[in-house]
Every structure is written in C-alpha cells, then in structure tokens.
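Re: that chain you flagged

S.,

Sorry for the slow reply, it's been a week of failed gels. I finally had a moment to sit down with the sequence you sent. For the record, here it is as I used it:
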Amino acid sequence: MKAAKIFCIILAVLMLASFATVIVGASSAYQTYTYSIGGYALHSPDAYTADIVVDSEYMGLSTPINAPNDLVTDDKQNVYIADTGNNRIVCLDRYYKLKFTISSFVNTQGVSDSLTAPEGVFVSKDRIWVCDTGASRIVVFDRNGNFLKIIEAPESNLFGDNSLYKPVAIAVDQYNRLFVVSSTTYQGIIVMTEQGEFTGFIGAQAVTISAWEILWRRFRTEDQQDQEQEYVSTEFNNITIDSDGFIYVTTSSIAEGSVMGAITGKSADGKYMPVKMLNTNGDEIMKRNGFWPPAGEIDFSTGTTDTITGVSTITDAAIGEEGTWSIIDAKRQRIYTYDSNGNLLFAFGDIGTMLGNLTSIEAITYQDSKMLVLDKTSCAFTVFKRTEYGNILVEAIAAENDQDFNLAINKWTEVLKRNSNFDAAYVGIGQAMYRNGQYEESLQYFEAAYDTENWSKSFQEIRKEAMSKYFLLLIVGIVAIIVAVVYANKFIDKVNKKAATSGRKRTFGEELAYGFYVIVHPFDGFWDLKHEKRGSVRASIVFIAVTIIAFYYQAIGQGYLLNPEGAYASLWVQIIGVLVPLMLFVLSNWCLTTLFEGEGSFKDIFIACSYSLLPIPMLLVPATILSNVCTNSEKDIVGFISTLAFIWLGLLIFFGTQVTHDYSMGKNIVTILGTAIGMIFIMFIALLFSTLVGKMISLVTNIITEIQYRM
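Prediction finished late last night. Pasting the structure tokens below so you have them in one place:
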C-alpha cells in the first residue's frame, strides 16, 4: 500500500514536471519571435532624400578625381575634396562648380613644392589645412589657395623609437590649436600649436587584451615579457570639431568583441566605442542617453545583405545643425544621425548603384541643411536634401534648445503624425511637458517610449506634491502600520506560547501562527515542527497558496519602473512556477535521504519546505507596493527586499533539511547538492516521459486515422 502511494506521488510529479516543460517551452517560443525596433527609425519617413550626384564632369574638372579621401565645407558653403590620387585639393563653390585646385606651390625656402597624396583637409575661418600624407606634414594655405607655411612632423620623446608620422585627418579649433590623426600613431590624437609645437597627446584608446592573455602573462618570465608583443592603443581614423571646440573622433580598429560588448551592455563611458566626443583635455564627454549608444548598427546578425554581419565600421563623422551629428558605416554604406543626447534620429543608406545608394562610402559633411556623402569608387559625391519630415525634426530640436517648450510640443506632435513609432518624439514631448510643470501629462509620453529615467523625474515631482499635501496623513499611516505590526507580533507570540503549553491538539490557527516562529527560530522551529507536530499539511497548503498569490500580485502589480513593458505571467504560470520546484525538491530530497539515513518522511520534508516559503509573501508584497511609489534611485532598495526574501527562503530550506533529517552541517551540504542533481535527473526523466507519451499519442492517432481511411 505504501509503495503504491509512493508510485502515485512520483507519477503525479513527473506528469506535473512534463506539463511544466511544455508550458515553458511554449512560452519561450513566443518570446523568441517578439519583434523589436530597438529604438531605430529605419522605416520612418525619409529625413533626407538624394538630389544629385556630383562627378568630375559636373564640377568642370579636366582631370577626373582619383581615389578621394576627404570632403569638407566652409562657412561660405564652398566644398573641398582631398583628391589623393591626383595629389591635389579641389575647391568647389556652393553650387559644386570648380573654383580652384591646390597641387603645387613655392615653399618658404623659395623652392617649388607640391602635395603628395593628401588624405585630409580642414577649413577654418581664414585658412585651409591640408594633411600632406605622402610627405608626412601639414601644409597651410589661405582661403584663396595661396601657400602660407608648412608644419613639419612634430618632435618629442613621447613618440617612441622608429615611430612614423602619417597625418590623415586634422581639425583646428577657434584658437588655431591643431588636432591631428596619424594613421601610424597609437598614443592618441596629436595636439600642436599653429606654429607646429607639439603639446601632447589626448584621447588615447583603451587597449584590448583578452582574459586568457592577462592570465598567461602572470606565468611568463621577465625575459619572455620583454620579448612578447607590446600592447599599444588603437589608432583613430578620422576627426572633426564643432563650433564649441568639442572633438569627434572615430576608429574602426577596436576588437569587434569589445565593441559588441560595449553596445549590448549599453556602456556610457565610451571606452570601447567606435566614435567619441572629447574636450580639449581629451576627456570623453559624449552623452549616450538613447536606447542604444551611438555606434551605428546594433543588429549585428544582419545587415544590408545576408553576408554583412558584425558591428559597424565607422570611418567619419560630421556636425549638423542644433547639436545633431552623423557617422558613416563603411561596411553597410549607411549613415546614422544622432542628437546631442545620443538618441538616434534616423538612419539611411544601402549598397547599390541607384541614386542615393553607395558602393564605397568614404566621407560625409554638411552644407547648411544638405548632406554631402563622398563615394570613393565612383569618385563623386551625392547631395542629399532634407525633406519636410527632416525639417520638422530639426525644428523640434531647435525649439528644445531654445527652451520654447510649447513650440517643441507642437513640432514633436507633427513628427508623430508622420512617424508614430518615433520614440525620441515621445521623449521630446514628455521633456517639454516636464519643463512646463505638466508632470502627470508627461508620464504617458515617457511610458510610450519606455523612458524610465525621465519618467522617474516626473514621478518624483508628483510625489513631492502629494507628500506636501498629505504629509500628516502619511505619518499617521506609517505609525498605524508599525503599531499594527507590533500588536500582530505580540498576538502571534501569545498564540504560540499558549499552543506550546496547552497539551491539546493544535488548532488550524495555531498551525498557521507557528509559521512565524519557524522563520525566525529555524532550529527550534523545525525541530518542534517535526517532533511536536506543530505544523500540518493543511497549513502548508495555505502557505503555498499565499506564496502563489504573492508572486501573481508581483506580476500584475509591480510599478512602472520595475516593469516598464507591462509584462506579466498568468496565475496558472505562477502555480506551476511554485509547485513544480517545490515538489521536485521534496521528492528528490526524500529519495536521496532514504538512502543516507535521513530521519524525515516525505510529509516532514513537504511541511518544512512549505513553512519555509513564508518570507516570500511577507517581503514580496511590501516590495511590490513600494515599487509603485519608488523612483529610479530607490528601485535598488525594492530589489534588495525581494532578494532578501529569496535568501531567507534558501537559508530556511537549508536549515529545515538539516534539522528534519538530523544531519551534520557537512552532510547536509552534500545532501543539498545531491538534491539539486536529483531534481535535474527527475526533470530529464519527465522529459523522456512526456516525449514517450507524445509519441504514443501520435502512434494511436495515426493508427485510428489509417483505420478510418481503410474503412
């Protein structure tokens, strides 16, 4: 009879576990195919549209451009191209017609000289600065193309032995300080005065070393360490500067794994980011407050074609209006544009030969509201004009920058009319309302964009107002709760003491009350629970039910900050989530301890584990309530309370098992580990069982179908 009961229990648990496996499997299948736009507005209305392709014939050049490397504009909207293959700089007017070229000149020694494979050009207020890469120098001209001076390679002990100097990009601030990117210099960006005096390096890129290499270096001798590969910083590939003197630099040499980890981890420090914003001291100051940090593509598994995967190859950056800026991805021939907070505004571009597509994107610059994109293969640049949608987008950002919040709300609303999936518009409206003092109205817009940071700020202001109005009532409520807890604790102690000395059969209420004694006095509590019969199965069932309800309440009642997407699990899932692990542990522990002189029966283990669940509802329910009134800075406290509940549960199960079976500490640890292994084994058996049942059902179904067909 006893063996039959045991068999029934095992069969029930196996069926329950197998059913849970099916439920979890079905749930995960739905989660796998959840669609996410990841904050990208790739399918929004076009912010820019291709207008014309400017080639050598259009420019009026007798010698076609060959292997161009850079493209910039000046404050008069003139366009400058570093025509590397022809050893010259081509200057065009605002309509892309030839003004002049710079190739040869008479240097300061009165000797005829010429440019050699220039790869970079920058135009300041009154000068044209050329990276004469082949000759390893900077050559300076006035805005009419007349030679002014040559800045030779800087000299310093900081460059190291046998170092090469190959300037490929340059930016100059309002004080004529030079920031030079050398393709063979790893110490960072070279900073010089306008006279060419070297003042130092800034912005050196962090070195990427694998964990294995760090470990292996610890075991090498000094001689081996001297002979090993020297780890140096990654070089930059391009540079630009905005009107405030902030420097944007790009690199494509960081290890792809490091970049991928920084993007998926939503790193804000920029340590392994392919684009950085630096001040003149070299400090990284870029704001990365968007859904993903500015780094181009974030869906690494796909690209423009099936063969393009991995992180973007960022090779240039350009400064637009109202703090907007763009980068180019040479791998996907795509352009990404962000605002000053790092929010992606739009992305466009593709590989191809049609108007607007590119084959070898090389450089990008802004010409007022237009965007010019250089293609190295075609030796031409495409002019992209900003559309109505793009104009409204920039006007909305401008209204924010001017703190005209009512206008900003109107402009962002116009953006949403054209692109209802644009998260930055919801955030923009919410921020404008926040600054107008419309805190409650702003919440729904932050919620639409899942912007928990700004939502928290608005909610904090609402909470301040509520606390100022109901401060006395809040104090009275807190005092009332404390008093109620104290009196409830005294009442429970009284009930437990009375039950301990009465000598009669325990009532249901006394069995429930004893649970509160067990969780704070585990050794005495679990001993009496088994030997004095202070607990019962019916009380255990109540504790299990209350735990299920607590988990369900957490699923449906958690505050926005802890559950911004409003995800929740059904009551049925919560029942499975509590019962299956509980019964697996009880069954596995009982099976194991019967072989290792355990003194607890199946019933004793079940009651001990069920009583151990009590901290879950005790702490989870208050934590869920607090999650509805906490801010971002406080949600860690809520998480700590929930974590404390599970730690408490784990300790109670551990000591409950030890007392129930009268084990030593060491033997109990081994038993707990064996129980965990047993749970895995039971789940494996359950999976086989469910698979076997499924095949049997399929076989019977096929036989019935075949018989019906034959008849």
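What I noticed first: The first strand starts at residue 48 and ends at 54.

Talk soon,
D.
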